[in-house]
């Protein structure tokens, strides 16, 4: 993983903390099962396909809109695939979980006096389900969905709209995400402090990351001092 500056220096230089949700705060294992197992299984059933055929078709459709808002849009996929994905999410919402140590760490982070907000590509319906299931909204100051801002986090327009809405100063902002393309987009916008999550899913080992300073999990950023 890319070398990183001491966490104490990072916190001294940070007023605003922007956090991805899935794979940073919440265990990506839930979404991996949903998109790589449950959705293709249902599509295979409806289309009379073998599971592997359905998965290959789904992956090809997703690749065609990668990095765009449609990739993250439940309405788009429900219309495209022919079944209700929101209902499927709700049916399995009890499996939505925090990554280890994150809930307590968020409590310390919010108490530090910094502005803490979620910046997610998740569809608003998914965001509502996950906030209701986890109580995550009580641990942050605000939540921002890319769908409300009109562009995915991979796109420059997202960061321009988010800065207008939040009023953060890029040079005093920390952004944490498990997606390297998203981190690259944030870097292009000028956000000074970036951290990658190396282990977004609890059932998978950490990934090697060279392009950005990385931690295995959010609590590895260490103790959060009170804002000066």
Automatic annotation (TrEMBL):
EC number, UniProt record: 3.1.3.5
Keyword Hydrolase carried by entry: yes
Coiled-coil regions, chain positions: none
GO MF terms, alphabetically ordered: 5'-nucleotidase activity
Region span, Disordered: 199-228
Alphabetized UniProt keyword annotations: Hydrolase
InterPro entries given in the database record: HAD-like_hydrolase_sf, HAD-like_sf, HAD-SF_hydro_IA, HAD_sf
SUPFAM superfamilies linked to this entry: HAD-like (SSF56784)
Presence of the UniProt keyword Hydrolase in the record: yes
Protein known as: GMP/IMP nucleotidase
Protein species of origin: Natronospira bacteriovora
Upper lineage: Bacteria, Pseudomonadati, Pseudomonadota, Gammaproteobacteria, Natronospirales
Gene from which this protein is expressed: yrfG
């Amino acid at each position: 993983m890319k070398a990183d500056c001491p966490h104490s220096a990072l916190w001294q230089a940070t007023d605003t903390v922007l956090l991805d949700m899935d794979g940073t705060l919440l265990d990506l294992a839930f979404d991996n099962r949903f998109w790589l197992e449950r959705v293709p299984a249902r599509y295979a059933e409806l289309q009379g396909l073998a599971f592997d055929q359905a998965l290959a078709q789904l992956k090809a459709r997703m690749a065609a809109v990668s990095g765009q808002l449609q990739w993250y849009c439940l309405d788009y996929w429900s219309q495209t695939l022919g079944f209700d994905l929101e209902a499927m999410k709700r049916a399995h919402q009890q499996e939505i979980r925090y990554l280890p140590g994150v809930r307590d760490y968020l409590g310390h982070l919010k108490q530090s006096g910094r502005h803490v907000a979620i910046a997610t590509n998740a569809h608003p319906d998914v965001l509502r389900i996950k906030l209701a299931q986890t109580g995550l909204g009580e641990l942050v100051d605000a939540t921002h969905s890319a769908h409300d801002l009109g562009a995915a986090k991979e796109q420059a327009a997202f960061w321009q709209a988010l800065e207008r809405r939040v009023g953060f100063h890029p040079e005093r902002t920390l952004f944490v995400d498990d997606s390297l393309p998203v981190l690259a987009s944030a870097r292009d916008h000028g956000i000074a402090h970036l951290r990658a999550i190396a282990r977004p899913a609890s059932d998978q080992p950490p990934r090697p990351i060279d392009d950005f300073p990385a931690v295995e999990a959010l609590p590895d950023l260490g103790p959060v001092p009170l804002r000066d």
